[in-house]
Amino acid sequence: MRICVASDHAGLPLKGQVIEWVHELGHEPVDFATDGGEADDYPDAIAPAAQAVARGECERGIVLGGSGTGEAIVANKVRGIRCVEASDPVVAGLGRKHNDANVLSMGARIVGTAVARACVEAFLATEFAGGRHVARIEKIDRLEADAG
Prior knowledge:
Blueprint: E1 2-7, H1 12-24, E2 28-32, H2 42-54, E3 60-65, H3 69-76, E4 83-85, H4 89-99, E5 103-107, H5 113-125, H6 132-146
Parallel strand pairs: 1-2, 1-3, 3-5, 4-5
């Protein structure tokens, strides 16, 4: 799979490792580079990666910031994105399994290296369960369409 990886300045310390892990796990990382500025704005760093996932240029995305919260909010504003914010691999996996999440958001100031790697592994290895969860995703899609 092609995996978009993006971060703001606060996520940069973790971003290089995430790119390495994605590659090690047999996927193609696509680096949405930031200039590493002192305090770049996370919407500017995250939106292009989320849009690339929504357009189908990447199958999934991983976005990083200080907490992961703002980054998840930005990603979820892009039509077609279902972003899970995770600081635990169980949550990352369940976001895929139950919610068909196509973007993972993590906070570089929140998760340690081992947990971050476990989240990436769970997110990339877990498939959507389908079944009863399909109807729930369809309801979310209708809400998104109604919102304009």
